Amino acid sequence: MSSNLAICGYLSADELATCLPAPERMAKGPVAVIECVQDIPCNPCEEACPVRAITVGLPITSLPVLDAAKCIGCGVCIARCPGLAIFVVDGSRPGDEGTIQLPYEAWPLPEPGESVHALDRAGRRVGTGTVEKVLSAKAQDHTAVVIVRVSKQLLNTVRAISVEGRAEA
Ligand code: SF4
Ligand code: SF4
Question: pTM for the complete prediction?
Answer without folding.
Answer: 0.92
